[in-house]
Design brief:
The chain has five helices and five strands, in the order αββαβααββα. It is an alpha/beta fold. It has one domain.
Length: 173
């Protein structure tokens, strides 16, 4: 029982196409799309990010070129911003986010300034252990409140944006 040569060649040439078609169908059915974070509160919040901050803000979120146009100002934890400027931003109802290892020490330095004590009744000097990678401060009247976020490793861009979104949700509430 021999297969004719022509039939053998036909079978051999169509077999790889059948196998490949089966593989592509299998890979399509097992892939799941990664959901795009919605950032319900950040999408309504104009954000200023200083140039020395390594946070990538998605194009779908509103950004501004100057802190005076922002509702959320994201700066490095060891900024070239003094307490007077930070207090002005807070008093103007802007949230200030300090990002990095020095976030808590910078915040404490600001709260010990005369301008802070003259503007806000809250001392704002509590410390967290471990020190936060991200500290978000906002004012409500004469009280300043902080939201502190820490991670066991360096946070990802998504983790930072999630935390900022959570902080803005709490601030707006």
């Amino acid at each position: 029982m021999e297969l004719p040569r022509r039939r053998l060649l036909e079978t051999m040439t169509t077999l790889p196409a059948v196998v490949l078609a089966g593989c592509s169908a299998l890979s399509d059915s097992t892939s799941t799309p990664t959901p795009t974070p919605s950032y319900n509160h950040l999408r309504n919040t104009p954000v200023y990010r200083s140039d020395d901050v390594g946070l990538r803000i998605p194009d779908r979120l509103p950004t501004v070129e100057a802190p005076t146009n922002a509702d959320l100002i994201v700066i490095h934890g060891n900024p070239a911003v003094d307490a007077e400027q930070a207090v002005t931003w807070l008093a103007d109802e802007r949230a200030v986010a300090l990002l990095g290892d020095s976030a808590q020490s910078t915040w404490i330095e600001w709260t010990q300034s005369d301008v802070y004590r003259e503007t806000f009744q809250s001392k704002g000097q509590s410390e967290a252990t471990p020190e936060p990678h991200l500290l978000v401060a906002a004012a409500a009247g004469t009280t300043a409140t902080t939201y502190r976020y820490s991670w066991s490793d360096l946070p990802s861009n998504t983790q930072l944006l999630d935390a900022l979104d959570d902080a803005m949700a709490d601030i707006e509430a």
